[in-house]
UniProtKB/TrEMBL annotation:
Residues 1-16 have a biased composition (Polar residues). It comes from the Eukaryota. This is Uncharacterized protein. PANTHER family: FRUCTOSE-1-PHOSPHATE PHOSPHATASE, GLYCEROL-1-PHOSPHATE PHOSPHOHYDROLASE 1-RELATED. GO terms for molecular function: sugar-phosphatase activity. It comes from Percolomonas cosmopolitus. Residues 1-22 are annotated as: Disordered.
Length: 232
């Protein structure tokens, strides 16, 4: 058993779709972890720039402002909450939330049809590593996005939904990130106590949600991308 664990923790090298080298950190997931839960946008899928373009479209149409720095700061918050907060900050009264969400979603879907959506290669490489070398660890997706948007992204990237014991989206929990609800619901659906779960996120909002849910570890994708890109 000891020998197997030691072998498992040896670094492995792989490449992304553009043949750029990536180092797999076999020690990234604690040996006693029972589940790894991935955010979607910006974590599994490099879709945040597309989302910003879609937000810019509806902001122009409905006369509100959503600067790029604030967009990334609020990454992980549900669209419904974003619209509510922007309206309050900018004294806009009540905005047609459902209408804006529908139009943003339609714009995003068309944009993603016309532009190749790519995986966050460093994260997906670790996902494949877990499937091959840690089959005992359950996998899940926990997103602040709508289900149809998340499922479309997974389908485009050929990430089989059967790999995940749960796919949790904004329709599945009452309070969005940074509240713990999303990650607590995901752990419950997996049948794993939060203290044995690891969360993977690309925003401070998401990482706060992981911590609030009592997960054993939160992995910051921004750090992972820096550390796993091998220097040539």
């Amino acid at each position: 058993m000891t020998q197997s664990t030691s072998t498992q923790q040896q670094p492995e090298n792989t490449t992304d779709s553009k043949n750029r080298p990536i180092t797999i950190d076999a020690k990234l997931i604690p040996h006693d972890a029972k589940a790894v839960v991935f955010d979607c946008d910006g974590t599994l899928v490099d879709s945040m720039p597309a989302h910003f373009i879609a937000w810019s479209h509806v902001a122009s149409r409905y006369n509100f402002s959503f600067p790029e720095d604030l967009f990334y700061e609020w990454g992980g918050i549900t669209a419904r909450q974003i619209i509510k907060d922007l309206a309050e900050q900018q004294n806009l009264g009540e905005l047609p939330v459902d209408e804006i969400i529908t139009e943003k979603g339609a714009f995003l879907a068309k944009y993603e049809e016309d532009h190749a959506l790519e995986a966050v290669a460093e994260v997906v490489a670790h996902l494949h590593y877990l499937r091959e070398h840690r089959p005992d660890v359950k996998l899940a997706v926990c997103s602040g996005g709508e289900r149809k948007t998340v499922m479309r992204a997974l389908n485009i990237l050929k990430l089989d939904t059967a790999w995940f014991g749960a796919i949790v989206t904004s329709e599945d929990y009452p309070k969005g990130k940074p509240e713990p609800d999303a990650y607590l619901v995901t752990a419950q659906k997996l049948g794993v106590e939060p203290k044995y779960c690891v969360g993977v996120e690309d925003t401070n909002t998401g990482l706060k949600s992981i911590e609030a849910a009592g997960y054993m570890k939160g992995i910051d994708v921004r750090d992972l991308r820096k550390s796993t890109q091998k220097k040539e």
